[in-house]
């Protein structure tokens, strides 16, 4: 009897042991649970602007300062310069020469305007963008001769405003307006010249 009872107890223990091993935890359906998704942060576009460039420019200037608009005589010219950038600021040094010949009867008149050199400080209003306006000012050593034979050579302060395009490209372009006023004369013949303007278009490399 004891042997039969012992055998029955061992048999039940073995059955329950296998039953415990057969019980498995239910699989968790991860697809049904909401997953935390972190929103992606917008990536700010950064414009890689060259820190310096050399440029060539073509322009026209008013050869008849202080006169009315009806008597403006434009003088075509060429220039070369170098621009060094640092953040929103730039230092610009250049040289230009504008020359025009006119004929009055049998007399040939020469009108010119030159700067050698001209140094300007420029400030970009949108330095991180591909296109930006800029303003600035500086001074030049230069000379001019007007149609009415006024001549000047000396220090010429100026103010500038411009717009630069494709600043992250290999070749960038700009358009610039300079307004200058002869100030300190080393050589002067005739009346002191008044303010005059120069409009130019340039390409930098």
Overview of the molecule:
It is a single chain. This protein is mainly β. It has one domain (52-204): Porin. It is 10% helix and 54% strand. It is built from one helix and nine strands. Strands 1-2-3-4-5-6-7-9 form an eight-stranded antiparallel beta barrel. A hairpin with a 6-residue loop joins strand 6 (151-165) and strand 7. The longest helix has 21 residues, at 2-22.
- Secondary-structure element pattern, one letter each: HEEEEEEEEE
Distance between the termini: 109 Å
Q: Any guess at the CATH architecture?
A: Beta Barrel
Question: What is the mean pLDDT?
Answer: 80
Strand order of the largest sheet: 1-2-3-4-5-6-7-9
Strand content: over 45%
Helix content: 10-25%
The CATH topology assignment is Porin
Which CATH class is shown? Answer: Mainly Beta
Can you tell me the overall shape?
elongated
Computed structural class: mainly beta
- Count of structural domains: 1
Number of strands: 9
Summarize the structure.
The protein is mainly β. It contains one helix and nine strands.
Annotate the secondary structure layout.
Blueprint: H1 2-22, E1 52-62, E2 74-86, E3 89-104, E4 107-124, E5 132-145, E6 151-165, E7 172-180, E8 184-189, E9 196-204
Antiparallel strand pairs: 1-2, 1-9, 2-3, 3-4, 4-5, 5-6, 6-7, 6-8, 7-9
């Amino acid at each position: 009897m004891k042997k039969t009872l012992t055998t029955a107890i061992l048999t039940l223990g073995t059955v329950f042991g296998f039953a415990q091993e057969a019980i498995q935890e239910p699989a968790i359906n991860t697809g049904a649970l909401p997953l935390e998704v972190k929103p992606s942060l917008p990536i700010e576009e950064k414009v890689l602007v060259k820190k310096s460039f050399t440029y060539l420019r073509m322009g026209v200037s008013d050869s008849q300062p202080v006169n009315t608009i009806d008597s403006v005589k434009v003088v075509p010219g060429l220039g070369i310069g170098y621009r060094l950038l640092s953040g929103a600021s730039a230092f610009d040094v250049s040289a230009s020469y504008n020359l025009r010949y006119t004929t009055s009867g049998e007399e040939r008149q020469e009108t010119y305007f030159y700067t050698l050199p001209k140094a300007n400080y420029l400030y970009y209003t949108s330095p991180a963008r591909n296109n930006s306006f800029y303003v600035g000012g500086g001074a030049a050593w230069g000379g001019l001769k007007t149609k009415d034979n006024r001549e000047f050579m000396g220090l010429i302060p100026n103010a500038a405003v411009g717009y630069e395009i494709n600043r992250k490209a290999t070749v960038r372009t700009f358009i610039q307006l300079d307004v200058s006023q002869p100030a300190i004369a080393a050589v002067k013949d005739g009346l002191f010249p008044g303010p005059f303007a120069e409009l130019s278009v340039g390409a930098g490399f």
